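Archive maintenance. Older records in this collection stored only the sequence; we are now back-filling the structure field for every entry so that each record is complete. The fields below show one back-filled record exactly as it appears after the update. Entries are processed alphabetically, and TrkH family potassium uptake protein is next in the queue.

ARCHIVE ENTRY
Title: TrkH family potassium uptake protein
Organism field: Brachybacterium hainanense
Length field: 444
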Amino acid sequence: MVGSAARSSSSRLALLVFTAIIGLFTALLSLPVATTDGTRTPFVDALFTAVSATTVTGLVTVDTGTHWSTFGLVVIMISMKVGGLGVLTLASLLGLSVSRQMGLAQRVITASETRAEKLAEVGSVLRTIVITSTSFELLTFLALTPFMIANEHPLGESLFFGMFYAVSAFNNGGFVPEAAGTAQYLADPYFSVPIATAVFVGSLGFPVILVLVGKWRTPRKWSLHAKLTLATSGILFLAGFVVHLVMEWSNPATLGPHDIGTKVLASAFAAVMPRSGGLSTLDIGALHNETQLFTDLLMFIGGGSGSTGGGIKVTTFALLILALVAEARGDRDVEVFRRSIPQETIRQAIGVLFMSAAVVFVATFVMLRITPFALESVLFEVLSAFGTVGLSMGITGDLGTAGKYVLVACMYVGRIGPMSLGAALALRSRTRMVHLPEERPIVG
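Back-filled structure field:
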């Protein structure tokens, strides 16, 4: 009974704590000390930035490198770290450090966020998450700091930029501390490779990372979720790489003027970022329509389950494709990697797909009514917000107050997840005791 009650309340608790954390960071970013000129940031922009950082999205309405002071950038970096770990995970870690033990209810709630398979493993999973995430961030920091020094940044600034980029990359935050942005590093592998690697690993999700860390020598013992996430993520990366390389090869505004090595590097970097990374070395607004459309799809899919990414998630997309293949073949069961997928899981995937599509449709419809921008720009922005990606066609800063609030809602729902949000807002849950007679309608 305790476990059942804890599971039913975990979504509401996550919603309340997440909202409170956003409120705290909004207040901090509203302080005059958070800006370079010492003035207060308008509430809507402070809220937008706090939500974007805590949901690890990366969309901005003010220029990060020029508007925010060092204090403001530190607040944003902490927000990304908190959002990447998860507020309930962080709360459980703090409680564990104080009391040295966790109650059953706390274990159940934490397990729902960390995706731990056994309640007894929650404590060790939490420690592994912190150690693993910190290690990846440290490695990225060590790779980027010498690069920053070599690019003639002062030592203190190089250390700060290295840490900021490391946190932003692994947690898929998408924020850039430099006024010049990341386009300046288009042809530089010493920046692109560490950043893209950190983004890709972070987008896999902690359930997969934990499997890789603990069982990297025995792939046959990997969980079905890990195998499915890795396989699908690899396919999506290759597809994104090919589309960017082929479609933009001769585009004079993107890859056209560059040599083959730069084209390959930039295409690989661009293929990783729609997972939820949000950093870009190419001008998104200058991409061909076909490339933008494919990026829309990648952003809607998002990252892995249990990761910082939004969207419908990689495994959801994979299960839907597998279900379509099974239906086309006339197979009764959906099977992959010598395992059969329960029908309840397929139903959940379908539910996530349609609820996510509904959120994107409503948000796009509203944005078209209240902004002067074209459909392709609005849809791209909404998908980037819902997928907590952070890529933009350059219209975010020009949105009115109402448009900014719509994107805030998209980022919030995208990070929480439409299914989790629905469960949290449900007035009550019940188990039906009566099963009505079946009758099959005509489909197709």
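Update note: The radius of gyration is 22 Å. Residues 2-425 form one domain.
Entry marked complete.
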